[in-house]
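Worked example 2:
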Amino acid sequence: MFELLKTDAHTKARLGRLTTPHGVVETPIFMPVGTQASVKALDPRELLEMGTQIILGNTYHLNLRPGMEVIRAAGGLHRFMNWEKPILTDSGGFQVFSLAKIRKIKAHGVEFRSHIDGSALFLGPKEAMEIQRTLGSDIAMVFDECPPHDAPAKEQKLAVERTIRWAGECREQPRAPGQLVFGIVQGGSNAALREECAKALVPLEFDGYAIGGVSVGEPEHEMFKAVELTEPFLPAHKARYAMGLGTPAQLVELIARGVDMFDCVLPTRVARNGTVFTRKGTYILKNAENKMDFRPLEDGCECFACQRFTRAYLRHLYIAQEILSIRMLSVHNSYLFLKLMAEVRAVIADGTFAEFHRGFVANYRPSQKVMLARAAAKER
C-alpha cells in the first residue's frame, strides 16, 4: 500500500510511504542490489547502520543458486539471508536483455541456458511469480521483456505486446501472504508505445508501476525521455520505480520528474574498480594524487570509512589488493546514495526541493568511467 504524502510545488518530486509485510519504506528511496541474496562486500549490519530500508534480489539468479529447494527449506529469502526489512525481487525480465546471447524468446516466456553450467531454464509469467512467491519477497515484479534501447521499432512493439500479455498472466498468479506486485512499463523512447503499455497496465490495478527499458545502454537524455514519456500515464496514488538507475545526479533529476524508487549496482560495482562517489562527482582512488592525501574519501561524510580511514591508506590497500579497501569504498558509496535520499526526503518535506535540485545537479560532474560502467551493467 502506497500513501502519497506530499508533492513539491515546483517540480514533480513526491514524498511517500510504502507499507509492506516487513516494514514501511519512506520514499524517495534507493535500494541496494543484493542480486544473489547479498549486497556485494557489505553485511546486513552495515546496511542497517547506513539507513537501508529495502534491498533488491533477483529471481533468475536465486532460482539457479541456491535454488528454490534451499530457499523453501530455509523458510523464505528473509530468513535465509537474515534480513528482516523489506525485499523487492526483480522477475528475471532484465536478464532477457543482459543474457541475450543465451536465451530465446517464446510466446509464453523465455528459454535460457544457464550462465553457470549451460542447463536449460524456462521463465515465463507463471514461473517467475511462483519463484517470487517461494522467495517471499515483499514486492514482486511482473515478468516482462526488456529490449535494447536501439532495438528496431517492430521489435520494441512486440516487446510491449508481450509485456502487456505477460503482465495480465502474472496478475492472475497466487502471491505470498501480503506480497505486493508491480507492473513494468516498456516501450523504449517511443511515445506511442510507452502510452499504450502504461494504459494497458494501469487498469490491472498493480500495487505500483515500474519504468523499464532504462539502463540498457541508452544515452542519458534518452533515459530521461523514457521516464518523461511514461510518468504522465502512471496513477499518482501508486509508487513509481525507475529500474536500474543511476548516478546521484540522475536520481535527483528523476525524483524531480516524479519517480519514487530506484535500484542500481553502481555504488558497489565501481567500488570494486576503485572509484569513489562524492556529492560533486567521482574520482579514481588509485591515482597518484591520492598517495599522500590524508583526508577522508569525502570531506564532511559521516560514513564508517570516512570517519576512520584516509584516501592514502585506502589507496595503499587497493593497490595491494587488500579486501578492506573494496569493502570501505562500498560502504562509502552506498552510504552516499542512501544519505542523499534521506536529504531529498527532508527537502521535499520542507518545500525546498527545487532549490536543492538545481544546486546539486549544477555541482555534480560524473566521470566518463562511471558512465561507461552504468551503460555496461549486466546484473541487477
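The chain is about 40% helix and 20% strand. Residues 272-363 form one domain.
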